[in-house]
């Protein structure tokens, strides 16, 4: 399901069953400030306030349909003037709702009656301070009930004050009741055999719909709120005894795109403002709108997209306005479509130039999340899935007509009333299921739900932390810099076709043209700087300009155009910067002046496509490119720079005289027992030397030759060995923790007795045929490494990264890979027998025929279309594993422990699951055609919509399983199976 929404609007869709008819219920909410109600808050700000005030287990809303409006207030009593008093009162008024409560200091019952109340300056108005206590069903959280000497409640109704020990007043409060309390649960209706046979899993027919109202009765109204009502709050703010405000005066619109047998239909439910939440001491409020439409599938599989917007009251836009915005977003993802939801789907701000509220500014991280789609919409990858599902639907402006209105007005639910709609001809669509209700703390976007999004976010966060640290060291505020909250210093005017290139030079941020008329001058300039072999003192600005000219010619730029572009660069400023960088070189690191510049680990600035079509941190590449020009980069940036050596071009080989000098120096130094830690040995020829036990920790060995060398027990911790050649070297018991061996050749290396590669960089390293048995690869990055025929028996590679790796022929017996990530790997027919794969993530992996026999794979996750067809999982431990959507055709899960596993939409055609333990497993929409589940344990499992044609369930235990709308045939066999309490609801008739 694709969600199109602005950043200032929260949207939570869920399926609600009215008897046995599913509805998509859409809840939209927006926060506002009391002083500036028209200045609507960003969604993350609302969640932040809600979690801080309601607690991690608190609910902003239960996401149920409501037939009446209600007011919920979360806050404290503050006696006027911040003066401690024994008693005070609070009052809230909104439209027809007007409620007052007395708030009294702490008291207890004594021999002579009540004690005097203790003065207070602040008292939470919560159910814990209202009458109740253990055994008091109407408020088990409260005080005053039970032990005769118990504390008395602090919050009471003026009409029902406690005067005697035996008084049992109704609890007084302003927040919502728990649904299990009798004030609400008594309205649930009759749950008898008729309900079970005719309504389940929906609610009873005689349900009182006010069950879903959380607030006390005197905080509910007939009908719904308009949206511009005035409100008053008294004594609930430390400095404002009386607050007068108004709701923000907005309305919500919602459009639900449904897949039907005739194509695609767009419906508009009426969105009613049914809930107002106030947080008086925060001077913040939230309004919640709700509406719903009937759908065909009870998991919302027929919902393609939901668009939700806000309008100013009295300024309603035509439905076609939203239709025209949504329609092009139903097809494949189009990077040319503007990301302008906040401009198009929200009311025009009263004062666009007004500064943001202090607690409502998106941080740098939030901005990156926004660009990746985690805020203001679904994550990019989820959007692409929905877009792919809608591809070819033929959704367009032509052929649009209004959907027929429901003729039976009396039967229509109040919260699902449609107002308008359109229908489009086209093919069927696939859509992701809707999210369900969850507490406030768990309803935030979860990057871990999608492997690629999680990895992208992990890389971005690591990069942000890395760059933030360096910015702090330079005296800058990283949040201000990354989010561009403030103006740049000394900005130069830029043409509309130019982008701001932000650079850090000599402790100063400046603006300079990066892209002019489509030519990326900044990138060419950075490349010219990278090609400069010597330190700044040896490379003049004129030389750099000439290299830049050559680079542009190489890019096919015409000579006159190149001259025009070159004239746009401030060469005098560049000369000043270069001199400043040279002047700042540390005396203690003269070799660093000749070092190649480095960048952050991995691929910190991937191409647009790798980030879902949009760079998540536009400023970072320019920032790193400018730093590349500083000759002291490697010495100054230390460990962070070490992680990036492999992404730079390989260093040139030394001339024979210099190479021989370094070789003799190293050989002599080692024989004398001298430490070679931190030495610059870039490009040195140290092949076939006996360097057993040598200390080369932190040494710079880029492009060095160590072929056939004896490096047993050597200390290479933190060394830079990028592009080095270690073919046939002996690394037994060597320490390479944190070393960078990116693009290094380690073919046929020997590491008997283990080698330490913890947190090492082995990106694009060639390890073909290497013996790394017993090695420690914990946290290592082996992205794009060649591991064919590598001996990895007994390795510890917990939390290691294997991206685009070919493991064909690798030996992994006894390996411990817990928490590792395998992204786009080839593990076809690889033997993982007995391997610890706990919490491992496979992303778009190719693993057909792989062997996982007796593997420990608790909480393993397989996402983004991974394939393990014909794989052997017999006897494996897969408790809690996530195999949703995975291709498992013909795989063997005999005797596997799969309790609680997620197998929704998995392809288990002709799979063998004999005697497998699938208790509480989820198999919704799984394809079990021809599968064998002989004697399988399926207790409490869920197989809704599963296809079980020709499947064998003989002697299986399906006690308490749920198989609603499961599809079988005459060849499906349940002979000898335990079907007690098996729940089966036949498939329902679809629309159209």
Shape: globular
By DSSP, the count of extended strands is 30
Rg over CA atoms, rounded to whole Å, is 33 Å
How many domains, as an integer? 4
Largest sheet: 6 strands, mixed
Q: Which structural class fits the helix and strand makeup?
A: alpha+beta
Please, what is the average pLDDT?
Answer: 78
Instruction: Flag low-confidence runs.
Output: 363-412, 417-540, 581-637
Strand order of the largest sheet: 2-3-20-19-4-14
Classify the helix fraction into a percent range. 10-25%
What share of residues are in beta strands? 15-25%
- The number of helical segments is 16
Termini separation: 21 Å
Q: How would you describe this structure in keywords?
A:
DUF2169 domain-containing protein; 5-stranded mixed sheet; DUF2169; 4 domains; 992 residues; Pectate Lyase C-like
Describe the structure.
This protein has about 1000 residues and is of the alpha+beta class. β2 and β3 form a beta hairpin. It folds into 4 domains: about 1-75 and about 215-425, no CATH class; about 465-645, no CATH class; about 655-780, Pectate Lyase C-like, CATH 2.160.20; about 815-990, 3 Solenoid (Pectate Lyase C-like), CATH 2.160.20.80. The protein has a 6-stranded mixed β-sheet with strand order 2-3-20-19-4-14. It contains 16 helices and 30 strands. Residues about 365-410, about 415-540 and about 580-635 have low confidence and may be disordered. The longest helix is centred in the middle third of the chain and has 23 residues, at about 450-475. The two termini are about 20 Å apart. It is globular and about 100 Å long. α6 (about 365-370) packs antiparallel against α8 (about 450-475), α10 (about 520-530) crosses α11 and α11 runs antiparallel to α12 (about 560-565). InterPro entries: 5peptide_repeat (IPR001646), DUF2169 (IPR018683), Pentapeptide-BTB/POZ_domain (IPR051082). It comes from Sorangium cellulosum. This is DUF2169 domain-containing protein.
């Amino acid at each position: 399901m694709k969600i199109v929404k602005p950043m200032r609007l929260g949207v939570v869709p869920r399926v609600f069953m009215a008897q046995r008819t599913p509805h998509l219920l859409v809840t939209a909410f927006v926060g506002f400030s009391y002083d500036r109600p028209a200045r609507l808050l960003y969604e993350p700000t609302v969640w932040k306030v809600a979690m801080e005030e309601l607690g991690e287990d608190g609910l902003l809303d239960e996401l149920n349909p409501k037939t009446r409006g209600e007011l919920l207030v979360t806050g404290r009593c503050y006696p006027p003037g911040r003066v401690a008093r024994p008693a005070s009162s609070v009052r809230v008024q909104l439209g027809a709702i007007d409620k007052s409560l007395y708030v009294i200091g702490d008291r207890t019952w004594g021999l002579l009656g009540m004690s005097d109340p203790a003065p207070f300056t602040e008292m939470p108005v919560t159910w814990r301070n209202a009458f109740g206590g253990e055994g008091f069903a109407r408020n088990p959280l409260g005080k005053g009930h039970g032990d005769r000497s118990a504390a008395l409640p602090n919050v009471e109704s003026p009409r029902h004050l406690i005067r005697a020990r035996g008084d049992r007043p109704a609890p007084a409060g302003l927040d919502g009741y728990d649904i299990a309390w009798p004030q609400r649960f008594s309205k649930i209706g009759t749950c008898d055999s008729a309900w079970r046979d005719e309504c389940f899993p929906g609610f009873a027919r005689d349900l009182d719909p006010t069950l879903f109202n959380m607030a006390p009765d005197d905080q509910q109204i007939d009908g719904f709120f308009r949206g511009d009502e005035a409100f008053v709050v008294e004594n609930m703010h430390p400095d404002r005894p009386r607050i007068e405000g108004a709701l923000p005066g907005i309305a919500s619109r919602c459009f639900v795109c449904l897949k039907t047998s005739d194509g695609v239909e767009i419906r508009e439910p009426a969105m009613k403002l049914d809930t107002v939440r106030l947080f008086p001491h925060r001077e913040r409020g939230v309004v919640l709108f709700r509406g719903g439409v009937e759908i065909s599938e009870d998991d919302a599989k027929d919902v393609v997209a939901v668009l939700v917007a806000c309008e100013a009251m009295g300024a309603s836009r035509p439905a076609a306005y939203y239709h025209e915005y949504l329609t092009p977003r139903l097809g494949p993802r189009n990077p040319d479509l503007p990301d302008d939801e906040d401009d198009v789907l929200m009311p025009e701000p009263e004062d666009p130039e007004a500064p943001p509220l202090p607690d409502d500014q998106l941080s740098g991280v939030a901005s990156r999340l926004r660009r990746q789609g985690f805020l203001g919409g679904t994550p990019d990858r989820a959007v692409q899935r929905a877009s792919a599902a809608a591809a070819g639907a033929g959704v367009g402006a032509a052929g649009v007509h209004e959907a027929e209105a429901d003729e039976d007005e009396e039967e229509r639910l109040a919260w699902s009333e449609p107002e308008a709609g359109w229908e489009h001809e086209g093919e069927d669509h696939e859509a992701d299921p809707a999210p369900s209700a969850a507490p406030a703390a768990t309803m935030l976007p979860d990057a871990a739900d999608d492997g690629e999004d999680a990895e992208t976010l992990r890389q971005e966060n690591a990069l942000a932390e890395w760059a933030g640290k360096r910015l702090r060291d330079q005296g800058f505020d990283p949040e201000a810099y990354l989010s561009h909250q403030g103006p740049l210093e000394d900005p130069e005017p830029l043409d509309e076709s130019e982008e701001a290139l932000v650079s850090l030079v000599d402790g100063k941020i400046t603006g300079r043209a990066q892209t002019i008329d489509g030519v990326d001058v900044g990138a060419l300039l950075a490349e010219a700087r990278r090609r400069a072999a010597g330190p700044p003192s040896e490379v003049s600005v004129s030389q750099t300009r000439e290299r830049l000219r050559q680079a542009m010619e190489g890019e096919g730029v015409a000579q006159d155009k190149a001259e025009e572009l070159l004239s746009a660069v401030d060469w005098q400023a560049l000369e000043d910067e270069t001199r400043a960088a040279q002047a700042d070189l540390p005396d203690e690191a003269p070799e660093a002046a000749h070092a190649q510049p480095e960048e952050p680990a991995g691929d910190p600035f991937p191409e647009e496509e790798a980030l879902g079509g949009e760079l998540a941190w536009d400023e970072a590449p320019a920032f790193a490119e400018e730093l590349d020009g500083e000759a002291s980069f490697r010495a100054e940036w230390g460990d962070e720079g070490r992680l990036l050596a492999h992404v730079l071009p390989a260093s040139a080989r030394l001339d024979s005289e210099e190479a021989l000098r370094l070789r003799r120096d190293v050989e002599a130094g080692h024989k004398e027992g001298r430490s070679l830690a931190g030495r610059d040995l870039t490009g040195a020829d140290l092949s076939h030397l006996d360097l057993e036990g040598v200390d080369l920790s932190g040494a710079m060995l880029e492009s060095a030759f160590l072929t056939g060398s004896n490096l047993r027990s050597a200390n290479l911790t933190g060394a830079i060995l990028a592009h080095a050649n270690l073919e046939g070297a002996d690394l037994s018991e060597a320490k390479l923790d944190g070393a960078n061996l990116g693009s290094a050749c380690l073919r046929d290396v020997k590491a008997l007795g283990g080698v330490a590669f913890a947190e090492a960089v082995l990106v694009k390293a060639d390890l073909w045929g290497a013996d790394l048995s017993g090695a420690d690869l914990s946290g290592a990055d082996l992205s794009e490494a060649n591991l064919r025929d590598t001996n990895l028996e007994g390795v510890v590679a917990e939390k290691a990264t294997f991206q685009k790796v070919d493991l064909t022929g690798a030996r992994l017996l006894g390996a411990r890979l817990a928490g590792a990530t395998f992204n786009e790997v080839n593990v076809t027919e690889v033997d993982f027998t007995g391997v610890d794969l706990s919490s491992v993530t496979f992303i778009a992996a190719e693993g057909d025929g792989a062997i996982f026999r007796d593997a420990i794979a608790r909480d393993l996750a397989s996402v983004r279309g991974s394939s393990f067809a014909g794989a052997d999982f017999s006897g494996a431990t897969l408790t809690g594993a996530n195999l949703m959507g995975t291709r498992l055709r013909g795989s063997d899960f005999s005797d596997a422990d799969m309790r609680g596993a997620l197998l929704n939409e998995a392809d288990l055609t002709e799979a063998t699951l004999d005697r497998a333990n699938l208790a509480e497993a989820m198999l919704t929409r799984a394809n079990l055609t021809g599968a064998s589940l002989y004697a399988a344990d399926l207790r409490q499992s869920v197989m809704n919509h599963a296809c079980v044609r020709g499947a064998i369930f003989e002697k299986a235990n399906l006690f308490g399983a749920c198989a609603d709308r499961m599809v079988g045939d005459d060849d499906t066999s349940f002979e000898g199976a335990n079907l007690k309490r098996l729940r089966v609801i036949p498939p329902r008739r679809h629309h159209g």
